């Protein structure tokens, strides 16, 4: 199918883009930002989305960067392609969990066109990125008619494909606080085919001090309307020996504590619950065994 007709704008600066969005909104225009188009174009083609105007961010080259700031924060501009993030030695060294998650997103062609910001703004519950953001406590930088603001991951993802961004907001960057070099991490997912969105997945990070688990953060994706922290498993693991028996207990608890996993023709609610149990135990084991 072809998209319904729309006006097309491609502002050449961030202030112009902010003004344009505010003006369109004030005129009552139903507009949408487009970045890489890897999620939005199929939605337009299927007419699931029928905006009257598209505001393309492709010309905003200022939003395409990966840099380490003085305090060690890794900042990635929203228009950076996912493949650039996957290939970046800076990302690999500073945030190996984010880099590993990026490699799991779709295929190279999709990562070449799709932007880092687009994935976060799209907030697909099956996407790896929101879960990783919850684990890493990622900060989101946005700008709207009232100026710039920052939003923490816990407040950013609201519900199914909905974030704290207003229609007039542009996500400009994602910021990751330094990830300590000894901290363990892993991401595990189950998809029908390589490159598909996951039916279920788990991302996590924790420390091991004197053989005990500390500061455990685990998030699941593909199971509820947003990525969710698996707090029951996190709390149970705190101070427990980093051993297989504890990881298997954590998996069971994670699965049992899920509210109401999604169900679709590919995976029932019970199957997703089972997957989360298995993937949690597996990811904990992988992280603990990681040489660093
Ligand atoms: C075959 C296939 C497989 C895929 N597999 C995966 C996968 O495994 N994991 C995964 O996470 N994703 C997957 N995707 C989605 C892909 O990663 C998209 O690139 C991504 O979700 C959206 O990024 P984009 O830049 O293309 O955004 P677009 O499609 O252009 O936009 C997506 C949404 O975000 C909004 N948006 C974009 N940029 C901004 C911004 N800077 N500020 C505010 N709002 C903005 C848009 O308005 C729109 O609502 C897959 C896609 C395909 C086609």
Offer a quick outline of the entry.
The protein is of the alpha+beta class. Helices cover 37% and strands 24% of the residues.
Give the helix/strand layout.
Elements: E1 7-9, H1 14-26, E2 31-34, H2 40-45, E3 53-56, E4 66-68, E5 74-77, H3 82-87, H4 89-94, H5 96-103, H6 108-113, H7 116-122, H8 128-136, E6 139-144, E7 147-152, H9 153-156, E8 157-159, E9 162-163, E10 170-176, E11 184-190, E12 200-209, E13 212-221, E14 228-229, H10 231-237, H11 244-257, H12 269-289
Helix pairs in contact: 5-8, 10-11, 11-12
Features:
292 residues; alpha+beta; 4-stranded antiparallel beta sheet; globular; binds flavin-adenine dinucleotide
3D architecture notes:
This protein is an alpha+beta fold. The protein is built from 12 helices and 14 strands. The protein has a 5-stranded antiparallel beta sheet with strand order 4-5-10-6-7. A hairpin with a 2-residue loop joins strand 8 and strand 9. Helix 5 runs antiparallel to helix 8, helix 10 (231-237) runs antiparallel to helix 11 (244-257) and helix 11 runs antiparallel to helix 12. It binds flavin-adenine dinucleotide. Flavin-adenine dinucleotide (FAD) binds next to strand 2, helix 7, helix 8 and strand 10.
């Amino acid at each position: 199918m072809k998209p319904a007709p729309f006006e097309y704008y491609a502002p050449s600066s961030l202030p112009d883009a902010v003004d344009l969005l505010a003006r369109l909104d004030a005129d009552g225009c139903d507009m949408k930002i487009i970045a890489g188009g890897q999620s939005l174009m199929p939605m337009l083609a299927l007419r699931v989305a029928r905006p009257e105007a598209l505001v393309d961010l492709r010309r905003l080259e200022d939003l395409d960067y990966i840099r380490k700031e003085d305090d060690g924060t890794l900042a990635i501009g929203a228009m950076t392609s996912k493949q650039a993030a996957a290939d970046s030695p800076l990302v690999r060294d500073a945030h190996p969990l984010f880099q590993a998650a990026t490699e799991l997103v779709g295929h190279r062609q999709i990562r070449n066109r799709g932007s880092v910001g687009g994935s976060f703004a799209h907030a697909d519950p099956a996407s790896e990125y929101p879960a990783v953001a919850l684990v890493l406590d990622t900060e989101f930088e946005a700008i709207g008619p009232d100026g710039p603001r920052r939003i923490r991951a816990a407040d950013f993802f609201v519900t199914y494909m909905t974030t704290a961004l207003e229609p007039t907001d542009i996500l400009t960057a994602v910021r990751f606080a330094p990830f300590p070099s000894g901290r363990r991490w892993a991401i595990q997912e189950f998809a029908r085919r390589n490159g598909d969105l996951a039916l279920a997945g788990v991302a996590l990070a924790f420390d091991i001090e004197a053989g005990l688990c500390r500061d455990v953060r685990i998030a699941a994706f593909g199971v509820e309307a947003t990525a969710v922290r698996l707090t029951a498993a996190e709390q149970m693991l705190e101070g427990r020996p980093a051993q297989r028996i504890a990881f298997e207990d954590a998996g069971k608890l994670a699965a049992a504590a899920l509210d109401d996993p999604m169900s679709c023709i590919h995976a029932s609610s019970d199957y997703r619950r089972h997957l989360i149990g298995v993937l949690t135990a597996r990811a904990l084991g992988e992280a603990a065994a990681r040489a660093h």
